[in-house]
Amino acid sequence: AYAKFSGxxxxxxxxxxxxxxxRGHLPxxxxxxxxxxxxxxxxxxxxxxxxxxxxxxxxxxxSEVLGYEYMLKESL
Length: 76
Description:
By secondary structure, the protein is mostly helical. It contains three helices and two strands.
């Protein structure tokens, strides 16, 4: 969802089997030779590459995004 809101151009390969990933974690981001399987690290990677969904948000909206990120982290 974060990638979509940030406008990140990516291809999604859906799977529900973490055993098919490099370290057994979902989600996984692969970019060239880089593989990331932590939500926070994926978001940091997007931000470092100038894809940020939070740029135009108010403080209230930013806190809602943090809550959503936490919910995603806990449910995966």
